[in-house]
Amino acid sequence: MGSLSDTITRLAAFRARRFSPSLDGNLDRLSDLSDFGSNPGALRARIYIPQALPDGAPLVVVLHGCTQTAAGYDHGSGWSQLAEREGFALLFPEQQCANNANLCFNWFLPGDIRRNAGEALSIRQMIDTLAAAQGLDRRRIFVTGLSAGGAMASVMLATYPEIFAGGAIIAGLPFGGATTIPEAFENMRGHDGHSEQRLQGLVRGASTHKGPWPTVSVWHGSADKTVDSSNAAAVIGQWRDIHELPKTPARTESIEGHTRRVWCAANGKVLIEEYIIAGMGHGTPLKTTGDDGLGSGGAFMLDVGISSTLHIARFWGLVKSGDGGIARAKTVAKPRLVRAQQLDHEAISPASNSNTGVRTIIEDALRKAGLMR
After folding, report:
1. Is residue 106 in a domain?
2. Rounded to whole angstroms, how far apart are CA atoms 189 and 342?
3. Are 215 and 334 in contact (CB under 8 A)?
4. Which of 64, 202, 312, 333 could form a disulfide with 168 if both were Cys (CB 3.0 to 4.6 A apart)?
5. Average pLDDT over the chain, rounded to whole?
6. Do 231 and 243 meet the contact criterion of CB atoms below 8 Å apart?
7. Is the pLDDT reported for residue 268 higher than 80?
8. 9 Cβ contact partners less than 8 Å away, ≥ 6 residues apart
9. 365, exposed or middle or buried, with CB in 10 Å at 0-12, 13-18, 19+?
10. Domain count, the chain
11. Between these two residues, 262 and 15, which has the higher pLDDT value?
12. How far apart (Å, rounded) are the C-alpha atoms in residues 34 and 156?
């Protein structure tokens, strides 16, 4: 057994490694997961394990947006803050520049969005390795993501539905609507050209799974100019069909001044929820102050007074500490208008954007915000 001084030295080094600055200047609370399989998508795996992780803990897989790193998205969203408090593990797959120059997950490339292939298989391998190593509860595995990460969350839910108890798609896109860069841009603008029936068939054809199916939470800003909010409706349409639910929601309510619609099973359990954040552009909705505050605002991390991180965790049953700071539904009809300054970014590589002048301006702003090197 090592000496006490040796133990203290190793613990200090471990702590410095866990809470050191990341390449984008944000606090890096994450560690690396290595040797998780063949990794055909050539992704990096980052993880966060609470200091007192209980046996059989849940796992949340978090997928960052374009130009972001795993540590940067964690810093903004506050997922590791909540995981430490509530006792669940986190997996952050991270894109590499060699795969996509703008660090976007390749949600529009056929080789990366099929079951048992590419980036989708890499993420599956990470999940299996981490769940086995930490003794996690395989019945409580969830996935969420922003923008291109949200679109990749759609991919994971469709191609591996038997793995996930639930998913959350923030400013993302439906599964399978794009297989080329031009189609990806059309999807983002809300002009995908696919019928609802065809989109629904894509999910059913992505695996041989017959149920039960994951629950789904969908978040979108009403003023999103990068990924049109019609994509939220397309995502919901795919999963309404899977769950055999009617088009009309079971109820519509106001949560912290924003519209929430829910679709329920016959027993009343909410299977699908949708949040439309009034006046918000492209990004993850945050509430960073107060007793229920999480994360930190920045580019595409928008402090608009509602924490998607906390609400999503509550929807999945991961928040055990009292009410989790989440306000109860109100009967207020008008949502509060939120004005938030933010940058729009493309959900695919900037190499496909011919307007280099505009791209240069955006990239300069991203560097100043600490989200691009």
Report:
1. yes
2. 18
3. no
4. 312
5. 84
6. no
7. yes
8. none
9. middle
10. 1
11. 262
12. 21
**Assigned token pair, 136:** 């996690």
Q: In this prediction, what percent of the chain has a pLDDT beyond 90? A: 74
Q: b/e for 43-63, b at 16 or more Cβ within 10 A?
A: bbbbbbbbeebeeebbbbbbb
Instruction: List all residues 6 or more positions away from 117 whose beta carbon is below 8 Å from its beta carbon.
Output: 40, 111
- Residue 363 identity: E
In a domain, 373, yes or no: no
Q: How many other CB atoms are found less than 10 A from the CB of residue 257?
A: 18
pLDDT above 70 for 332: no
The residue type at 60: V
Tell me whether residue 264 is in a domain.
yes
Count of Cβ atoms closer than 10 Å to residue 278 Cβ:
18
Residue 357 has pLDDT above 70, yes or no: no
pLDDT, position 336: 32
Active site residue 321: no
The amino acid present at 268, given as its one-letter code, is: G
Residue 26 in tokens: 């944000």
Question: Which of the following is catalytic: 77, 147, 154, 307?
Answer: 147
CATH number at residue 282: 3.40.50.1820
Q: What is the largest CA-CA distance in the chain?
A: 67
Where in the sequence is the domain holding 257, given as residue range(s)? Answer: 4-368
- Alpha-carbon distances of 190 from 185, 229, 240, rounded to whole Å: 9, 8, 19
